[in-house]
Amino acid sequence: QTLSLPIVVIVHGNQDNNAKATVLWDNAFSEIDRVPFVVAERVPWEKMCDTLNLKFMAEVQTTKGLLKEHYFFLAQKIFNDHSASFEDFQSRSVSWAQFNKEILPGRGFTFWQWFDGVLDLTKRCLKNYWSDRLIIGFISKQYVCKLLSTQPQGTFLLRFSDSELGGVTIAHLIRGQDGSSQVENIQPFSAKDLSIRCLGDRIRDLGQLRNLYPNIPKDQAFGSHYNSEWLAAE
User: Fold this and answer.
1) What is the pLDDT, as a whole number, of residue 175?
2) Could you tell me which of 165, 157, 166 has the C-alpha nearest to residue 135?
3) Would you state the pLDDT for residue 232?
């Protein structure tokens, strides 16, 4: 006899997400010579970062992994802590409950359910944009405001939605005549939305979007992702 890789049997599709979380946790954090089904309840956050990065790159099939600033945002989300530094998080450990049991504050889903939604969306609709580093993705609304507030009118960036599973939103700067600035977040696009009209064409359609943060003209950044039929017609 020999031990197989972990298997989870489900009876309904709505259990798929939890099953994937269980298999991921077991694969990443169990010891080779452990008693079957015994896995650590808490793991170092640094180890979790490596696991999320490997999972993201494998699912999306990209060579562009998560960056230090992405890990910082993910730590703030999973620990619900916006006052700690990047270094503070490195010494912490994350529990199974924080990963896929406790509901995120003000939301109806867990950290893993949110991350898995991002994975699915990126894999299905955003692989090339992510691989071209056109999507920051893992960034908070508050930090977006800080980045965009000093930029010219129409500067924008793309972030994964906090409020909806599997959504990507465009944040852009509006500057008033008095010089005041306001960041507007466009209603998130789902995989269904992007299967109807791709992200590149949606960005091209929105006249208020001018430069991808920090200062890349949108046609230069996204031109290769515009629909070729539209370009031919033009």
Assistant:
1) 83
2) 157
3) 45
Give the span between the Cα atoms of 167 and 165, in whole angstroms: 6
Q: Report the pLDDT value the prediction gives residue 23, as an integer from 0 to 100.
A: 77
Strand boundaries in 54-188, DSSP class E: 93-95, 155-160, 168-175, 181-185
Predicted local distance difference test score (pLDDT) of residue 118:
95
Cα dihedral 214, 215, 217, 220, rounded to 10, equals -70
Written as six digits, the tokens of 178 are 């008095």
User: Tens digits of per-residue pLDDT, 174-197?
Assistant: 887 777 888 889 999 999 999 999
Q: Which amino acid is at 58?
A: A
Torsion of CA 195, 142, 45, 112, to 10 degrees: -30
Q: Return the closest-CA partner of residue 184 out of 195, 169, 165.
A: 169
Q: Each residue of 55-72: b (16+ CB within 10 Å) or e?
A: bbeeebebeeebeeebbb
**DSSP assignment of 204-229:** HH-TT--EETTTEEHHHHHGGGS-HH
DSSP-H helix ranges across 96-187: 96-100, 111-121, 127-131, 141-148
Backbone angles phi, psi at 27, to 5 degrees: -60, -40
Which domains, from first to last, does the chain contain? 13-230 (1.10.238.10)
Alpha-carbon distance of 70 to 74, in angstroms, equals 6
SS3 content of the chain, % helix, strand, coil (to 5): 45, 15, 40
Nearest to 76, CA basis, from 96, 94, 101: 94
